[in-house]
Structures are given as structure tokens and as C-alpha cells.
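#random but structural
TW: two for the price of one
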Amino acid sequence: FDKNAGDATGTMSEQAFTYDEEKALSANAFEREGYTFLGWATESTATAKTYADGATVKNLMIPTGNEATDKVTLYAVWQQSTVTVRWLNGDTVLETDEGVAIGSTPTYDGAEPPMEGFHFTGWNPEVGPVSEDTDFTAVFEINTYTVKFNSDGGSEVASQTVDYNSYATEPSDPTKEHYTFKDWQLDGTKFDFNAV
């Protein structure tokens, strides 16, 4: 019996069988943290069991009479039962959750991830049941701002929606009877439309 993993623990002795007689396999004595033992296979790379734990078997091989070669190795088949989940903001690890059960939905317990000029909208991939080690990365949308124009009794000027760190577009000059448009001002100072 081969534990088939360097981090598995425990020992099992060889088991003798007589050709053409049924006999139960020894119960598994190996353990592997974070994994569930599925059973035994005849190939070390198998991902599915060939024999269940303690299965009754018969004629695992055709004997040749040579005790040195008349051996069958059964390899433990493992399935990961817990995974590690990381929560990222770009390359920064915000939180690491170890021992998350497969099939469960992890929860982020930290503060909402920040990004200047943006607001947090969720995670990529979308948070749901996990089946393997998973990184969830924060997703952001850019902040937008509304710029309104007060024409002081002149013709109406449409407001604009402007992204963070972007420019408002200078609108066409409003008109007002008996007046000539001069400029747009913010807090009494001429507004520069080439400034963020």
C-alpha cells in the first residue's frame, strides 16, 4: 500500500493474498491533512478509485510463482477536502482564508477595498462555492461626477457627467438678451476647462 503523497502520514504493512480466494483489503491507515481518502488505484496518477477502502477483492494479478515480482502496489487516491482562498486588491493580499471546505462559499471579513477615484463593486470571479484554491480580486468602477452650469438667467446649458480625473467639456456660450457672455466661473474665479 502506497500513501501516494509526500505529506501523507501513517504506515501500512504488506498484505498476503491467495490466488482465486476473496479477501478484504486492509483498512486504510494513511492520513493527509486537507484531503479525503477515496480508495485505492493501481496507478499512482489515478484520480478515481479502483477499489474502495476495505473492499473484498480477488485475483489482483495473475501470479507467476516468483515471490519477488508477484506483488501489486495499490496507491491511495486523495481528494482535496479544504482549500485556501485569498482576497486581493491588485497585487496586495487583503486576507487569506485557509481550511475552507470544498463546496462552501467563503466570506471576506475585511474592510471594503479602497482605490482612489474608484468605488468597489465586487469580486472577480464572482464569489460562490469553491472547489480549488481560489483568488478573488477586487473589482472597481470609476467614480463619476455631475457638472452643472448656471447661466444666470441665460439659455439653458446641459449638465455633464465626467469621470474621475477627466475634464469637463466647455459648452457653447449661453445667450441672454441684452448681455454678452463673458466666461464660466467657479467660486468667483474663471474656470479652466483644461484642468481636471
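TW: number two ↓
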Amino acid sequence: QAVLERDGKRQKISVSTRLKQDEGIWINGSVIVPLARVFITPKQLQGYEKINRQYAQIDFRTLKKMLGVPVDYQVLENVLTAKPVDARAFKRAKLSFTKDAYVFGLRKRGVEVQFVFDAEFRLTEQRLKEGKTTISVIYDTYKKINGQWFPEQLSATLFGENGATTLTLSTRQAQLNGNINMPFAIPEGYKSILIQ
């Protein structure tokens, strides 16, 4: 289930998500009836919504300009799987300890990155800040599947000049390392949405 909160408004959507490491993220959203489908690949995001019969395609360079923070496919995959958005940051990060947590922090070329791990070294928060824009992802709970920890709930918040937007994803069922089918095709007759 996904909950989107912005400007005091809250929307709930049932979401099915499939992820094939380094290949694609498939998302299907519905409220009683199917509403939208999104397919994210290392090159682009594309999706369509069924009510207005519209679709959109956007590359990561354009998405970075829109959000104001560096984002690409690997960052999105890492956020969903509770891995640090930039593992290379650990080479130069400073380590500090707080109550029951390890905190790694780094500032490089105007970008601040922070990773917080619990006593079992599971990621509990990661924060990325560039200029006036901050993205914070908090991992509230974990579940062990096939010997691997998997986030049951995460809350991603984008703080910017226009306020805050929070997306909370809750996992009811997760399957790891299985055969994954990710069907995606933009239906005929749908109109393109220009995203800038």
C-alpha cells in the first residue's frame, strides 16, 4: 500500500511492486480498479494512467532537474531495498555513534549524505541534501525473508521550497530471488504528457 501526503491531503493506493536487480522496477497502482502502471529502467521512467488515458516518459537527467537532487535508477533501487543510495560515500564518510545507532555522514561538492544504521546494522534512515532540497528515507520496520532483511515499511519525504511531500510504502508480501514478470506497454490511443 502507498500513502501520499502533500499540503494536508492524503491519498491511499494499493500498489504491487516488482523489482529485478539492475534491470527494472515495475509498479501497478489501483483503488478497487487498476489506475496506473509505471516501469523504471536504468535509462528512464515511463508510465500511464488509465482514467485520462495519458502516458509519460522521462529520463533521469530531467528528473534530477525537477527534484533538485541527484537521482538515477540505482538510487531508486537502493531506496526500495534499504541499501545506501551511494555506497562509495563510505570511503570518505565520518562515523559517529548515537544512542543505539551508527551514523555515517559526508559532505561533497555541496551535497550532504547521511546514513543511520541500527545495532544490527540495518539501514534506518538515509538523507540526501543539495541546496534547498532534502530527501529523507526512513525505514520503520524490517522482515527477514530467506535469510535477508527486507524493509516492511519506508517513508520517503521530499522537502523543498514548495513544502514537503511524503510517500509511505508498506509491504504486505515480498518475494525475493524468484522468476519475475514485468509486463509493460503503453496502450494505443493514449496521449503523451509533457514533463519539464
